[in-house]
Amino acid sequence: MRRSEQKAREKARGTVVPRATVDTAITVSHLDVGVTGGGLILDDVSFRLRPGRILALVGESGSGKTTAALACMNHLRAGLELRGGTVELQEGASRFHRNAVDLLTLSERKMRRLRGGTIAYVPQDPALSLNGSLRVGEQIAEVLRAHEFGRNARERDLRVAEVLSEVGLPSDRAYQRRFPHQLSGGQQQRIGIAMAFACRPAVIILDEPTTGLDVATQDLVLKTIYQLTTKHDVAGLYITHDLAVVARIADDVAVMLHGAIVEDGPAEEVLRNPEHPYTRALLDAVPDMRGARDMGGGPAVSPEPGIRAPWDDGRSTASFASQEHTAPVAPSVVADDAAPHVDGAGAARSSGTSAEPGTPEPGTGGDQPPSTGAQGSTAAAAGTDAGGHGVEERPAPAVDGRAGTTAGDGPATGAATPGGNADGVVGSRGGNHPVVSVRGLRMAYGPAVILDGIDLDLAAGQTTMLLGESGSGKTTLSRIVAGLNAGYTGEVLLDGQVLAPSTRRRTTEQRRRIQYVFQSPFSSLNPRRTIGDSLQVPLQMTGGMNREQRRAAVADALDAVRLGRSYIDRRPGELSGGERQRAAVARALVNAPSVLVCDEITSALDVSVQASVIELLRELQHERGLAMLFVTHNIALARHISHKLAVLEKGKLVEYGPTDAVLRNPRHGYTRSLLRHVPTLEEAG
């Protein structure tokens, strides 16, 4: 580096406040905030933000955590008013105020100087927080200019490059000239973090910055936040409803309920030995990777061996290991260097014919030994009768028996018939018949391949979970199954019949049988329609019912999702997030479908609401024998709802098999990487 550049860097750093010498940056004392002319939103809230430490403010929607955080910046949303309390910026915490000052007494002009410079804020949605018409380097430089950071443009340019490097992004000019829409969601969030840390603030407030991010991106963002906070002695306030994230990043925790802090203390102590019933309830609602905890009032669908499954009559899933000797068991997952299974049998399935009985599937012949996942604990032999080990009327455990023989008239090794599929999925209501089959699916936009050679099945009474990072092709695949994305090659079959790519070209009956639940409950329902009117739309499109019959069907659907008929005349704006998502599920169920496609439907929900939605889906699946395709990046949910896992990486199916086998014995490096990034409660302390 040239001497002039080195000197400029030193000057830029010279404008930064030295490492904190104070024990506390901000002290919030007895804060009361209420609705104008109404009741309290915050009631006697007190906490401290200390340099180099992160306080997690935890609570569900409506608990007041965001209101308390914004009060630290002397910002109250419209319709709220301060009723009492102080937010004191301590002496020595800011280069703008040498003496202690109550932020709630400062004018808006003085607060504008502090916001961004002394107290920085990272909002939840990076796409909305960045200016779409400004290049990312210019947006960071704009923050530096606004707070008079650096003596000239050269020093600010050096600081832009430096802070981009600090958040793990390229710092070259070409990258700085990109627009926000040219970046991934994780990159956009790190740009927001770079803007927040650009001026070396004393305090940073982070409002659920990892909501909606996949586990690998979330892990990277959390590491970035933690490293910058500790490295620069920044006091952090992290708002979240995800207690697993709290265990990974927070030093201290404050739990909020109805505007009051009901429990606080060191993260390890609160998470491992909670005292308040509400804290214990939140912890119980967090999904765990072993499936040991009941979530949403019900046990996991695919727990580890030794943990009782909901369909189990006293035997654990480990009891299926005793069947290993009856027949060879095919690989439950795809090996590192193997492509998803596409062979002669697969082609035969697509055309409706059978392959030769002796044709081996990939991995069952040559020098590839048969694999049973993790000591064969969850894969039943293909020779077992379909109903032999499941409790009546309950979903049977997922089995992956591509090789071997079946009892009675079932298919032989490598064969494919309507009664058996390459993956040996056993459904609770449909035997081992796949309701939906995807064969040789490929989709590309020009040279960019989105999906490449996808084969999977959805069986009645079972859930297949699609896992992968953002951009892996999960949502594209789910939309193709539902007929919302055309332009692909390969086939999607419903009960063995090839479906047209677009819903417009599918029959009314085919459209009725496959229903889609969208990610956002806030945008998927028409705000101008009542819930009853929204639920009647699919029935009107299907036809065959008069008005009274449609209203009765709507009432039955609302009863099924545990909302009740009183919601028929309500509008979406009158419902909570969880109630809206239940209404969206009711709309999908009103036509009595066979297949339900759920696209990230729990990603924006509180943990307890998420648990209730998962419980609802499990009950509906048991009652109606639904085949479900569940798209998510939340791997911790896998044991609680899925029978099979399909892992997508850059459009390729790299691993596919029973949930327990994939989680306990992942064969592909990408799957192992995803599992390493999953935050858990056990990380506390």
Shape: globular
| Model regions low in confidence, pLDDT < 50 over at least 5 residues | 1-18, 307-431
CATH C-level class of the largest domain is Alpha Beta
Main sheet summary: 6 strands, mixed
DSSP strand content: 15-25%
Biggest sheet, spatial arrangement of strands: 6-7-8-3-9-10
Query: For the residues shown, what is the average pLDDT?
Result: 78
What does this molecule look like?
The structure is a single chain. The protein is α/β, with parallel strands linked by helices. The chain has two domains: 3-284, Rossmann fold; 317-519 and 600-683, P-loop containing nucleotide triphosphate hydrolases (Rossmann fold). It is 30% helix and 19% strand. It is built from 22 helices and 20 strands. The strands form four sheets. A six-stranded mixed sheet has the order 6-7-8-3-9-10, sandwiched between helices. A six-stranded mixed sheet has the order 16-17-18-13-19-20, with helices on both faces. Strands 2-1-4-5 form a four-stranded antiparallel sheet. Helix 16 crosses helix 17. It is globular, with a radius of gyration of 27 Å.
